[in-house]
Structures are given as structure tokens and as C-alpha cells.
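Sanity check. The docking grid for coenzyme A depends on where the pocket ends up, so I'm generating a full predicted complex first rather than guessing from homology. Inputs follow.
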Amino acid sequence: MTDVTGIATLIGLFTEDGSLLPRSVWDIAASIDSYVVVTGSDGTVLACAALQEYSPPLAEVGAVAVAGSAQGLGLGSRVVRAVERLARMRGHRELFAITLANHFFTHLGYREVGVVRYPEKMARYGNSAKVGIDFGRPCAILSSRGRPLLI
Ligand SMILES: CC(C)(COP(=O)(O)OP(=O)(O)OC[C@H]1O[C@@H](n2cnc3c(N)ncnc32)[C@H](O)[C@@H]1OP(=O)(O)O)[C@@H](O)C(=O)NCCC(=O)NCCS
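Predicted complex below; grid placement will be based on this.
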């Protein structure tokens, strides 16, 4: 349960400015096997990311967060790579991310694509405004397409 509250606390640091969508402890607990975390020696959650599955081959990498004091050390890259491995183990071949941190994902080999490429995303939420995503903002959809997910 510690990881669940730690993940919720970490994500909560980045929801106010719109970097991340809010996730409740209940949502996180229900899908905890789709989260990866890096913890400090005292058990504090320093970084997290989550796999959100659509029909294979597609999945989303989201909830990527690194505590301020641990940013710039490669932990964000590590948790995204860990989600890629999890996705691959579960049969997905393509990941996408919706993000304001474009450079972070291009650094990892993702490239910008349009949301129209992912009708599954729109179908799941029906109306993007309901989940707080405003595609009129300069957030980008980045895809791992064309590059094998790491193992
Ligand atoms: C984005 C975030 C996860 C990066 O974590 P991190 O551990 O600091 O990243 P890394 O150390 O692995 O950095 C890898 C690369 O991404 C770049 N990068 C880091 N944070 C970035 C950001 N906010 N925007 C753009 N690029 C970023 C780094 O400069 C580095 O590139 P470089 O080697 O060319 O300089 C972290 O800043 C964060 O938690 N931000 C708030 C939440 C967020 O925006 N999440 C992403 C949306 S899903």
C-alpha cells in the first residue's frame, strides 16, 4: 500500500500545472501491476510510470513523474524503459504518450504524431475534455512507432 500512496503523492505534485492527469489512490491500487517505480533507500517513491493498455499492439505510457530532487538523473528514462519492457511482455508493440515534455520523449526515440492516429484513445474517453486533456494546448502525442520496444 505504501507504493500506492507514494505514487499518488508523486503524481499529485504535477497535476496542478497540467503536466499529469490526476489519479486517485483507488485508480492506482486497481492497476498497481501496471505501474513501475523507483524508490529511495527509505522506500520513498522517487519515480513512477504506468502502462495503460489498449488492444494489442497498442498501449500508452503515462503517469511519468520524477520527484523534483531526483530529476535530471535518468530516473524518468528508466521508468519509461521499464514500461516498455512490461508492454512488450504483455504483447504490445507500440506505445504512445500524451505530454508537454516533448523533448523527454524524443530523447527516448519517440516521434510526434497526430492524435488521429489513435482513435482508440479518443474512443475510450469519448470527449478528451472530460479527462482534462485539451488538445488545443501545446501538448504533443509521441509514438514509439517504427522502433522496437526494448526487452
Ligand atoms: C519529464 C520528467 C519525467 C523527466 O524525468 P528526469 O528523470 O528528469 O529525466 P531524465 O533525467 O531521464 O532526462 C532525459 C532527457 O529528458 C530531458 N528532460 C527532462 N525533463 C524534461 C522536461 N520536463 N521537458 C522536456 N525534456 C525534459 C532531459 O533534459 C534529458 O535530455 P538531455 O539528455 O538531452 O538533456 C520529469 O521532469 C517530470 O517528472 N516532470 C513532471 C511530470 C511530467 O511532465 N511528466 C511527463 C508527462 S507523461
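Relevant for the grid: Residues 2-143 form a domain with the Aminopeptidase fold (CATH 3.40.630.30).
Also worth noting: The radius of gyration is 15 Å.
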